[in-house]
Amino acid sequence: MKANKMNGNTKKRITARENELSEKLREIQLQVELQQEELKEKQNLLEESRDKFADLYDYAPNAYLTLDEAGLIKEINYTGANLLGFQKKFLIEIPFVSFLEKDEIGKFFNLLHKCKSANTGITEEFTLNSKEKGIITVHIIFSPYRNYRTKEYNIRLSLTDFTEKYKYQNELRESEARFRTMADSAPVMIWISDKDNDLIYANKTMLDFFGKSFAEINEKKWMQLIHPQDRERFIELFNKASSEARSFSTELRVKKSNNEYSWTLKSAVPLVLPGGEFKGFIGSEIDVSETKNYRIQLENSLKEKEVLLKEIHHRIKNNLQIISSLLNLQLNYLNNEEIIEMLKSSQSRIRSMALIHEKLYKTKELSSINFGEYIKELTSYLFTTYRNRSGTLRLDLDLAEVKIDINLSISLGLILNELVTNALKHAFPNRKSGTLNICLKEVNNDLFLIVADDGVGLPDGFDIKTTSSLGLELVDSLVDQHRGKLEINRNGKTEFRIIVRRRNDVVYNSTR
User: Fold this and answer.
1) Does the N-terminal or the C-terminal CB of the chain have fewer CB atoms within 10 Å?
2) For the chain, what is the domain count?
3) Which domain holds residue 329?
4) Helix, coil or strand: residue 443
5) Could you read off the pLDDT of 225-268 as tens digits, one per residue?
C-alpha cells in the first residue's frame, strides 16, 4: 500500500514538472517567434533602406566611382555612367584614366598614391572625354577607402561637372571685357555706383576728363570733384533717388583735369535685380559747358531785352500821358464846346492806349495782357471822365480772364473806348438812369466783345458805313482791320457785338 502511495505521489510530481516545463517551453517558443518577427521586420527595413540608399547613390546629382589601387573602376553610379557616356556594366574593370586627357594621366596617378599615403581626401580639377558631352571639366574629390570585408584598399571619387559653370564664367568675363572696351571707347563718361552710393566703376573717358586714376575718385571720393555750391544739392538728390530706386538727371559743376570747373549733365538709372533688390546706379555724364554758358548768355540777354522792352512801354505810356496833359492844358484856353469835346475824345483815346502800355510794363509776359482787367480800369476812367453825364448809370460787367496780344489789345481798347464814350455821351440824355452792359468772352478761339445799353437807342436809318461820327467810323475801320465781324442789334437795347478770331487767316462776311 505504501509503495503504491509513493508511486502515485511521484507521478503527480513528475506530471506537475512536465506541465511546468511545457509552459516554459511555450513561453520560450513565443519569445522566439516574436524575435523572429522583429528580425524579419528589421530585415525588411534594412533591405528597404539599402534600396533607398542604392537609389540615392545611383541617381545622386554627383558622379560616384570606386577605383582599386590600379585605377580600375570597381563601382559607379548611374550619374557617373551618364557623365562618361556608357552603361554601368561596360565601365566595370575599365581604367578610369582612359577618359582623361593624356597630359593629365600622370597627375591623376600621383594623386592616387598621395591620397593612399596621406590617408586623406584630395581635391583637383581634370578634363574628361565624355562620349556624350565631349570635352568636359570636372571637379574630383579623392577619398581613401578600405573594404571592411575584403580589406582591400580602394579610392572613392566624387565628380562634379563644372563645364557649364566655367562656360558661363567665361561668357561673363567676355561680356565684361566687351562692356569695358565699349565703355572705355564711348565719347561720354560712364560710371557705376553701388547701393551705398560708392563709385565702383568709371570708364577711361571719365578718368581722362578728371585727370585722375580710379583709386583717386572711387568710393565717396568722387563727390569731392563737385563744386561746393552744387555738392550738397547733388548728394541730397542722389540719396533720395537711391531710397526710391528711381532715375535722376541734373546739371552741376565739376572740377576737370585742368582744375577748372565745367558744367556737366549727370544722369543715372537704377540697377534692380529681378527680385526687386536695388544694387546701385549706372550713369552717364557729358560736358554741357558750351551749351550751358550759351543758355546763360541767352537768359541774360533775354532779361536785358525784357528790361529794355519794359522801359519802352514805360516811355510810350509817359509820352502818351504828356500828350494827354498838353491837351488838357489846351482845354483851359478854349471856349468852343465842339472843339472841347473833340479834344476830350482824343484824350480818352490816348488814355486807352496808354493804359495798355502801362499794363504791359507791369506784367511779366510783355506780349499780352489780361483784357478783362483792362476793361475794368478803362471803364472806371471813362465813368470818372464823364461823371457829370454818368452819375446815375449802372455798369454791369461780365468779363472772362482772356489774354490778348498788344496789337489786338490796342484795337479792341480803342473800340471799347469809342462805344462806351458814345453811350455815356448820347444814350442817356438829361442824365436819365440806365444800365451799361459790357461782356467779354472767348468761345472756340473767337473773342466776343459786347457793349449794350438800354438808353434812347440809335436814330432811325442809322448806318455805321455812312455815319458822321468819327468814333463809330473808327470802330468800323478797326474791326475790318482785324477781319472781324460787327453786329448791331436793337432788340430793346442798343447792342454792339464784335467778334474777332485770334487766327487772322479767317475772314468774316459782315452782315451789318
Assistant:
1) N
2) 4
3) 290-366
4) strand
5) 889 898 889 888 888 988 888 898 888 888 888 888 888 888 88
Answer yes or no: are the C-beta atoms of 195 and 280 closer than 8 Å: yes
What's the rounded Cα separation, in Å, for the pair 259 and 212? 11
Is residue 16 included in any domain, yes or no?
A: no
Q: What number of CA atoms fall less than 13 Å from residue 19's CA on the CB side? A: 6
Q: Please state the φ and ψ torsions of residue 227, each to the nearest 5 degrees.
A: -55, 135
User: Is residue 52 situated within a structural domain?
Assistant: no
* Mean of per-residue pLDDT scores for the chain: 78
- 462 and 505, same structural domain? yes
Residue 14 counted as domain residue: no
CA distances to 73, 199, 236, 245, 269 from 283, rounded to whole Å, are 57, 11, 17, 13, 6
CB 283 within 8 A of CB 192: yes
Distance (Å, whole) CA 249 – CA 238: 10
Asked whether residue 427 falls in the same domain as residue 512, the answer is yes
**HEC string for 169-234:** HHHHHHHHHHHHHHHHHCCCEEEEEECCCCEEEECHHHHHHHCCCHHHHCEHHHHHHECHHHHHHH
pTM above 0.90, yes or no: no
Q: Are residues 354 and 404 in the same domain?
A: no
| Higher pLDDT among residues 102 and 5, named by residue | 102
**Do 155 and 131 contact (CB within 8 A), yes or no?**
no
